[in-house]
């Protein structure tokens, strides 16, 4: 397999392992969203399976002797020479090293609940509690 093809298969495989499908499914509230999400997951799994099987395999080597017997050496040798001269360039990933540190930094963003936030900012908790108690909703 070419370097580019192998890179695509590796990235897709790693991406599939890192997706928290169950966690995302818990966030869906409507039945329609759940159906669409199920369709998305099946499509992703289908593409990922194809990448893992069909595109990750090395091609079968050509049996040049078989063709020499049926077609003749001269024509087969001409095709073999042309085939051997084909050079598929190797994929060189110059983009990932630039963006991986930025992406990793984004994944490290922390989340916090409202209770955790108000614990750090008690003055805002008091303000919001007062607004709710006085039935003031900002409009």
Automatic annotation (TrEMBL):
Known Gene3D superfamilies for this protein?
6.10.280.70
> Example GO molecular function term?
proton transmembrane transporter activity
Q: How is this protein named in the record?
A: ATP synthase subunit d, mitochondrial
SUPFAM superfamilies the record matches = ATP synthase D chain-like
Q: Which organism is it from?
A: Sesamum radiatum (Black benniseed)
Keyword presence, Transmembrane: no
UniProt subcellular location: Mitochondrion inner membrane
Query: Which keywords does the record carry?
Result: CF(0), Hydrogen ion transport, Ion transport, Membrane, Mitochondrion, Mitochondrion inner membrane, Transport
Does the entry feature the keyword Ion transport, yes or no?
A: yes
Pfam families the UniProt entry points to? Mt_ATP-synt_D (PF05873)
Where are the membrane-spanning stretches? none
Q: Which family does it belong to?
A: Belongs to the ATPase d subunit family.
Q: Which GO terms describe its cellular component?
A: mitochondrial inner membrane; proton-transporting ATP synthase complex
Q: Which GO terms describe its biological process?
A: proton motive force-driven ATP synthesis
Superkingdom is: Eukaryota
**Which InterPro entries does the UniProt record give?**
ATP_synth_F0_dsu_mt, ATP_synth_F0_dsu_sf_mt
């Amino acid at each position: 397999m070419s370097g580019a093809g192998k890179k695509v298969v590796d990235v897709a495989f790693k991406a599939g392992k890192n997706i928290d499908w169950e966690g995302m499914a818990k966030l869906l509230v409507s039945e329609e969203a759940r159906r669409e999400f199920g369709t998305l997951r099946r499509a992703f799994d289908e593409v990922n399976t194809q990448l893992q099987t069909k595109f990750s395999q090395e091609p079968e080597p050509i049996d040049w002797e078989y063709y020499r017997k049926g077609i003749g050496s001269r024509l087969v040798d001409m095709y073999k020479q042309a085939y051997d001269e084909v050079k598929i360039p190797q994929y060189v990933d110059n983009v990932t090293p630039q963006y991986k540190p930025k992406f990793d930094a984004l994944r490290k963003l922390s989340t916090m609940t409202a209770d955790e936030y108000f614990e750090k900012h008690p003055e805002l908790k008091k303000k919001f509690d007062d607004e709710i108690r006085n039935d003031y909703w900002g409009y």
